[in-house]
Amino acid sequence: MEKTEQLLHKNTFDKSDIVHLLSLSEPAERALLQKAAFATATTFLGNNVYYRGIVEFSNICTLNCYYCGIRKGNNSLHRYCLSVGEVINCAKWAAECGYGSCVLQSGERRDEQFISFVEACTRGIKKATVSDTLPEGLGITLSLGEQSRETYQRFFDAGAHRYLLRIETTNPTLFTSLHPEEQVFANRLKCLTYLRKTGFQVGTGVMIGIPDQTVEDLADDILFFRDNDIDMIGMGPYLPHPDALIDNSSVMDNDALLSLALSMIAVCRLVLKDVNIAATTALQAMVHDGREQGILYGANVVMPNLTPTDFRKSYQLYDGKPCIDEGKEECRNCLKNRIESVGRTVGWDTWGDSPHFEARKNDNNSTPARE
Ligand code: SAH
Q1: What residues contact residue 369 under an 8 Å CB cut-off, 6+ apart?
Q2: For residue 68, how far is its CA from the centre of ligand 1 (angstroms)?
Q3: The domain spanning residue 178 has which CATH number?
Q4: What mean pLDDT value characterizes the chain?
Q5: How confident is the model at residue 369, as a pLDDT?
Q6: What is the per-residue pLDDT for 281?
Q7: Structural domain of 228
Q8: How far is the centre of ligand 1, averaged over its atoms, from the C-alpha of 70 (Å)?
Q9: Residue 242: which of 317, 324, 166, 322 has the closest Cα?
Q10: Is 52 a pocket residue for ligand 1 (Cβ < 6 Å)?
Q11: 15 in a domain, yes or no?
Q12: Is the CB of 317 under 6 A from ligand 1?
């Protein structure tokens, strides 16, 4: 207890501190961690939680990540792609509800038709959502995997300003065991660099509780986020999918996994301080109030689902995805109450950018950009 209290007063953390905090299992110590993380979130980001309405616009995928339910080799799903008009309509609805930002996510494609589709959606959303409250339209985050530098530039020029590309794990051996050989760890790192150079607010994250992942690996993940000056974190528990190609026999039990996922949010908040951290849908898949718990442990972003209900069942990255039978209206009403129940407020009609990004932008204006 004493050691934990001491650590929670620190401002900078080394790997052994992080391992200690991630390993806490005593309820009283975990409560201290939770309180400290919530207080740090309040200090650096205020009381608001921001919405990013997510449109999962297509499950067509050219890759075969072994853990993922929509991987190319899974023939048991109906493949779909919304039209540009449908995507814009989802985003318009979000803007009218005061969401402030949206995320476009899909399976991974790199063909010209796909790239111009994303450009058309991005430009269309910007045009359709300008209002007095949102003079530059909705904030747009993309989550479309590894692309070329030119493609990232095209997406940025079309008006997207944030990009989420999870590193999945920073342990290269573990990364290799999760992906076919054409998917290379070094390329993912390169993509994160491209995104940063293009001018995006850069988000990354990991899956927590992957078979064979250790607490030391997770501590390295947090140090990676810090050392790469990441602006936003989207991470969540690893949840087995019945059609996955990895051996899921050694996955953690539910309670331990939920605790670890919440601890990761808390320790990220303590170490990284001013970044945006999402309480992801995968947390909610584990327990009905998973996102609220994520907020209590220091998260400040949630991603309500805007995908039309008919398509949600075909976009199950993992088993037990919540809300697949609900519509976006239900998601909106339910979430506001959930956020207020833990003492936060919703940041309506604003992009809710990462203060970390603002700080590094100002830094970069005074000192040469880091290569
Ligand atoms: N193709 C894009 C976006 C879709 S996948 C991309 O790869 O970036 C989005 C995220 O879902 C992945 O980064 C991964 O971390 C997560 N995911 C996929 N399968 C999962 C599983 N079985 N459990 C938990 N998260 C999973």
Answers
A1: none
A2: 6
A3: 3.20.20.70
A4: 94
A5: 41
A6: 87
A7: 29-361
A8: 9
A9: 317
A10: no
A11: no
A12: yes
For a mutational test of ligand 1's pocket, the pick from 56, 151, 166, i.e. the residue with the most ligand atoms closer than 8 A to its C-beta, is: 166
369 Cα–ligand 1 center, Å: 31
- State pLDDT tens for residues 86-123: 999 999 999 999 999 999 999 999 999 999 999 999 99
Domain count of the chain?
Answer: 1
**Is 362 in a helix, a strand, or coil?**
helix
To the nearest 10 degrees (0 to 180), the angle between helices 254-272 and 27-45 is 40
**Closest to 342 in 3D by CA, of 37, 8, 29, 22:** 37
Within-domain flag for 19: no
Residue 120 forms part of a structural domain: yes
For the chain, where are the E strands, in sequence order? 48-51, 53-58, 101-106, 139-143, 162-164, 201-204, 207-208, 232-237, 276-279, 301-302, 345-346
Alpha-helical segments (H) within 129-250: 149-158, 172-178, 185-198, 215-227
Q: Does pTM top 0.90 for this prediction?
A: yes
The position carrying tokens 């997406």 is 155
